[in-house]
């Protein structure tokens, strides 16, 4: 069947349709540049790069001992953007003032 199932293909199709529709609006295109500049700020980009290095290190370790294979690449990428980035948000909440053990119990 290939690397993507029907749900993933349908999701990608509708995300593409939505992106084309939303990017037709001039004010959205203008705002997108500001959002991209904000994402490229070192205070945002540095933690994301550190998380990426962490994931690459874990994947390398697991591949070395034979647990991770290239077949898991798609799932690893999806996990990084969904799961790991959620951890980044949770870390920000903990930094703002919530206690870390309470945050771990809440997210688990």
What is the secondary structure topology, with strand pairs?
Blueprint: H1 6-22, H2 26-39, H3 42-64, H4 73-96, H5 100-107
Helix pairs in contact: 3-4
Features of the shown structure:
108 residues, mainly alpha
Largest sheet: none
Mean pLDDT equals 81
Tally of discrete structural domains: 2
Question: How much is the radius of gyration in Å?
Answer: 18 Å
Counted beta strands: 0
Calculate the terminal CA-CA distance, rounded to whole Å. Answer: 34 Å
Number of helices: 5
| Unreliable stretches | none
- Into which percentage range does the β-strand content fall? under 5%
Task: Please give the share of residues in helix.
Answer: over 70%
Structural class: mainly alpha
Element order: H for helix, E for strand: HHHHH
Assign an overall shape: extended
Task: Explain the overall architecture.
This protein has 108 residues and is mainly α. It has helices spanning 6-22, 26-39, 42-64, 73-96, 100-107. The two termini are 34 Å apart. α3 (42-64) packs across α4. It is built from 5 helices and no strands. Helix content is 80%, strand content 0%. The radius of gyration is 18 Å and the shape is extended.
């Amino acid at each position: 069947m290939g690397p993507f199932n029907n749900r993933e293909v349908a999701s990608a199709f509708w995300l593409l349709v939505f992106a084309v529709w939303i990017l037709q609006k001039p004010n959205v295109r203008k705002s997108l540049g500001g959002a991209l500049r904000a994402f490229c700020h070192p205070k945002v980009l540095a933690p994301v790069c550190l998380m990426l290095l962490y994931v690459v290190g874990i994947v390398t370790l697991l591949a070395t001992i034979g647990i991770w294979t290239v077949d898991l690449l798609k799932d690893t990428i999806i996990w990084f953007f969904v799961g790991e980035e959620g951890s980044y948000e949770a870390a920000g909440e903990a930094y703002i003032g919530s206690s870390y053990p309470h945050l771990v119990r809440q997210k688990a």
